[in-house]
Structures are given as C-alpha cells and as structure tokens.
Amino acid sequence: MAIVEVTIAPMGTATPSISKYVAACHKVLEEATDLKHQLTPMATIIEGDLDRILEVIRRMHEVPFTAGAQRVSTLIRVDDRRDKVLTMAGKVKAVTDKL
C-alpha cells in the first residue's frame, strides 16, 4: 500500500483561483471508491494500491485541460513502504505518539 501526495495546478486560466479545478479533480477521485483520500489546503493525499492511484491521478491530470486550461502542472510524491502496512492515520499517529 502506498501513500501519494498530489497537487494538480492549471495554468493559463482567466483567474488565479483554482478551487473549481480542484473540486472537479476531486470528483474524479471520489469515483475511485477503492482509494482513501484526504484534501488538505495545499495538496491531496491518497492511500491505496500504487498502480491504481497513478491511474486515477492520470485521469485527474486531464480534468483542467477539459475545463479550458492551456497548461497543467502535476506534482506527485510517493511513499511506498513494503516492510509493513502504511496508512495515512498510521503515519500521523507515529508522530503524535512522540509529542
């Protein structure tokens, strides 16, 4: 299981606001009921099978183009741990237990 952080940012739009693009991307993600996800102020965190996550991110990357963006920048950061089960909640708990 992997945890992936993704930021999808359209460029070449009429306004600096991107919330409508983020919302449209999240609609694609919500259709992927086999993946857990969390929206944060700066990115989206996705938990699940890495191949499946990348497949969904590819579809999300296309959303701003279909909404009129001329350029899209997608940043992906992957945490893929294979020696034990990795979850978003587990990563947060590992730190908060030490506070």
Give a structural overview.
InterPro entries: MTH1187/YkoF-like, Thiamine_BP, UPF0045_domain. Belongs to the UPF0045 family. This is MTH1187 family thiamine-binding protein. The protein has 99 residues and is of the alpha+beta class. The chain has a single domain (2-96), classed as Alpha-Beta Plaits, CATH 3.30.70.930. The chain contains three helices and four strands, in the order E-H-E-E-H-E-H. The chain has helices at 19-31, 50-66, 88-96; strands at 2-11, 36-39, 44-48, 71-80. The protein has a four-stranded antiparallel β-sheet, with helices on one face. Strand 2 and strand 3 form a beta hairpin. The longest helix has 17 residues, at 50-66. The protein starts with a strand and ends with a helix.
How would a textbook summarize the main sheet? 4 strands, antiparallel
Poorly predicted residue ranges: none
CATH uppermost class: Alpha Beta
Percent helix, as a range, is 25-40%
CATH topology: Alpha-Beta Plaits
Mean pLDDT: 95
Taken from the alpha-carbon principal axes, the silhouette is elongated
User: What's the total number of strands?
Assistant: 4
Q: State the end-to-end CA separation.
A: 26 Å
Instruction: Give the H and E element order.
Output: EHEEHEH
Domain module tally? 1
User: What is the CATH architecture descriptor?
Assistant: 2-Layer Sandwich
Write down the Rg.
Answer: 15 Å
Strand order of the largest sheet: 2-3-1-4
Class from secondary-structure proportions: alpha+beta
What is the helix tally? 3
| Fraction in beta strands | 25-35%
